[in-house]
Amino acid sequence: MIRPVQEDPASGFRSMALSPSMLKALALARYHTPSPIQAEFIPKALDGLDVLGQAKTGTGKTAAFGIPLIEMLEARGRGPQAIILAPTRELTQQIVVEIKKLAQNRADVAICGLYGGEPIDRQIRALSQGIDIAVGTPGRVLDHIERHTLYLGDIFHVVLDEADRMLDIGFRPDIERILRKVPTPHQTMLLSATISPEIRTLSHRYMHEPVELNLSTDEPSVETIQQFYISVNHDRKMELLVHLLRRDKPRQCIVFTRTKRGADRLAERLRRTVPGVAAIHGDLAQTARDRVMAGFRAGSIPILVATDVVGRGIDVAGISHVVNYDIPDDPENYVHRIGRTGRMGKDGIAYLFVGPDQGEPLTEIETLINKVIPVHHVEGFEVVRQSATAPKARELFNTVTKRSFASR
């Protein structure tokens, strides 16, 4: 995202030769200094180049491609001129909101979100009235194509946002079917947190001499996030969580669990003692998910209990705390979890609850992020029982890694 202005709004964007209406929109939205990916990405996109950008969430990716898309729109034809594909309904909705904000001074720009979980007739009516930018999940976009309600003949700009995530959840065949239907030539902008061999294959096949931008730091974790682990017995995790919430009074907090059932159980227990708690996961009805996310964005729901699948798509700037109530099965999920906080340059705090038998998964996380996570002692919650293996694993890891870090 773009940082709030101090004075002379949008002055940092003037060197990009943006239109007066865009500069006014940036000023009204109190957008000021371009983030690194925006400073690099926007000029190249405005030149019509294919761009392959590597950047994490929370770095301003949406504005990086949204600003040039709006600037490059021409007179409306039969169908949209730009299509943006995203992995989840939640991310699609966030992109629509952000682009509408950027286009607030362009009454002639129409944007439509295409995703499942809502009546398709509403989307069909919007498409029939004419739109300029379509934002959707691959499955629903294909549905509209097959129904002949989405015409791709006027598409000149294609954006693949969080491409790695779309491939992870099996959207590659759908993405390729859509890309094959887009007229040539066209501009393609691909954004991904990682550039895997699969991303390379996709770029080689569907992009023309792309300019590659790596705006992702080597460290998997975000520097502005304070990370701590807390040793706690499994039967006292709930009590510890309530203690932390009351002590820290987070602006907004996401609590991650490993299972959907665990999320529901934890949210139900939390509601008895802490106000403003809701759960979100893949089994929740879409209308309920929308209602929860609307409340979380508005701040009326300050505490959200989530699973990994849904949690990764949450992009809310006000999240001050992330609590890993259950240690993730995959260390990379830890990185995605804590990345929900510390956004837009703000500080964030991430706690990781570690049971007495979980020294090994903690070590795997620290190895991935190349950092020893400091322990946070909470008085009254000392671990009563310790397994024999966990302390040994910790001692071995700390001896090796601290020596390695010290030699750098």
* Tally of distinct domains: 2
- Shape verdict: globular
Q: In the CATH scheme, what's the topology name of the largest domain?
A: Rossmann fold
Number of helices: 16
What this model shows, in words?
Pfam families: DEAD, Helicase_C. A motif (Q motif) lies at residues 11-39. One of its GO terms (molecular function) is hydrolase activity. Its EC number is 3.6.4.-. Residues 224-389 form the Helicase C-terminal domain. The protein is α/β, with parallel strands linked by helices. It folds into two domains: 11-214, P-loop containing nucleotide triphosphate hydrolases (Rossmann fold, 3-Layer(aba) Sandwich), CATH 3.40.50.300; 225-406, P-loop containing nucleotide triphosphate hydrolases (Rossmann fold), CATH 3.40.50.300. The protein has helices spanning 20-28, 36-46, 61-72, 89-102, 120-129, 138-146, 163-168, 172-181, 197-206, 237-248, 260-271, 286-298, 308-311, 331-338, 359-369, 389-406; strands at residues 51-54, 82-85, 111-114, 133-136, 157-160, 187-192, 211-214, 225-231, 253-256, 277-280, 303-306, 321-324, 348-354. It has a seven-stranded parallel β-sheet, sandwiched between helices. A six-stranded parallel β-sheet has the order 8-13-12-9-11-10, sandwiched between helices. Helix 6 (138-146) packs across helix 8 (172-181). The longest helix has 18 residues, at 389-406. Mean pLDDT is 85; it is low at 1-10, 386-394 and 399-408.
Descriptive labels:
408 residues; alpha/beta; Rossmann fold; 7-stranded parallel β-sheet; 6-stranded parallel β-sheet; 16 helices; 13 strands; 41% helix; disordered N terminus; disordered C terminus; EC 3.6.4.-; hydrolase
